[in-house]
């Protein structure tokens, strides 16, 4: 099992604080065996030099458009810009300190410009600004679906061959960035800790640990299955069936009368992270041309399993009473009317502080045990970043350096503070939940379908999986066949557009 890096950091800090207090101004040392027996060598601890030490951009300003829209989406503006001042709140103060440290280290000025564009107009608003020739910012943070709709139009600088931003580091989601690169040289969207919505809006399954304890005698029963690599959709189906209860004994599962195994609000948004969790390989470039590669038996099995889980009589497909939204789901969960609840995000843990029972976190299940890794999904409204093409190409080193240091420092300070304070890991369920959030953080890898499903006419998600699911259909082949011709045409057009943009920008 992977050691939780943030928890280890906090424990290490806690253990060393008394030592620092006792030592006063003395140097921190470690002892090692000396050359002569009986003697002790004293060696000073040293850190690797900061590769950006001494960088001086002369007070140059980086303007960052950061979304504050909350309509049918989340945003993490508070984890990027913060309040702009210290206010005693741990997370806000970590954001403030990060931004001050970046400004001081690089001698730059960070200017955060809030925007309120929604999921359905952000792309047109960004397009208007780019076409005008002056966006008023160099970096834009907005919904994945919005940037995915216009990335092929040449509105962003590519970061494919960027030598400053190190996408192999854990504070970047390097696999996810690569997954969005339709053709070589077309990496226009970035994901990582600096764009904190990449983590806070990641989909999570929440479950009632008290119900798990009552049924299995161990409130870590589900977590143990997950960490052992065995959390599959069949295991989830089994647990949801075994924990559902017909409370009124009338032989029917009825909303507000009974305890369901798993509850969601429809077959579209809530089932996207389930589908993504099955690690569908939608496209392949091994033949020298990007092509769909998911017309296979695995996809047939996926649609069957989606139907088996979603339409099970002990699961609730679409809450009807009250608020049919994430608020309604949260209320239903808090009232202990379901074991598992879907569709919610990691940031929703912040809204569960008043829940009296123990809350469990789960990644989405694998399709089967042959699937090597768990996959955690963002939503198409999760916010990612891009460098607008109106930014001066001569400033790319400057922009890249600032983003790299912002990402690095976010990984060191903001994300641990977010774990510890906002998500209350230390005070809720301890290291088990911290390990689960680490797993989710490290398994955000495959956003291709979320970014490009819309521009490909629904070929990836709607036509072949979610539309038939909503109609209780398990015939994947028919859905694929009906969408194949138009889908292939749209994919060819998208590839051609990216190739033209890359050639023009490299020209």
User: What strand order characterises the main sheet?
Assistant: 4-3-5-12
Helix content: 40-55%
The CATH class of the largest domain turns out to be Alpha Beta
> How many structural domains?
2
Low-pLDDT parts are: 1-40
Major β-sheet annotation: 4 strands, mixed
Proportion of strand residues: 5-15%
SSE arrangement, N to C: HEEEHHEHEHHHEHHHEHEEHHEEEHHHHH
* Rg: 24 Å
Report the principal-axis shape: globular
The total of helices stands at: 18
* Mean pLDDT, all residues: 88
Distance between the termini: 48 Å
What name is given to the CATH topology of the largest domain?
A: D-Maltodextrin-Binding Protein, domain 2
For the record, what is the CATH homologous superfamily label of the largest domain? Answer: Periplasmic binding protein-like II
Structural class: alpha/beta
Short recap of the structure:
This protein is α/β, with parallel strands linked by helices and 507 residues long. It is 41% helix and 11% strand. The protein has a four-stranded mixed sheet with strand order 4-3-5-12. Strands 7-10-6-11 form a four-stranded mixed sheet, sandwiched between helices. It has a two-stranded antiparallel ribbon with strand order 1-2.
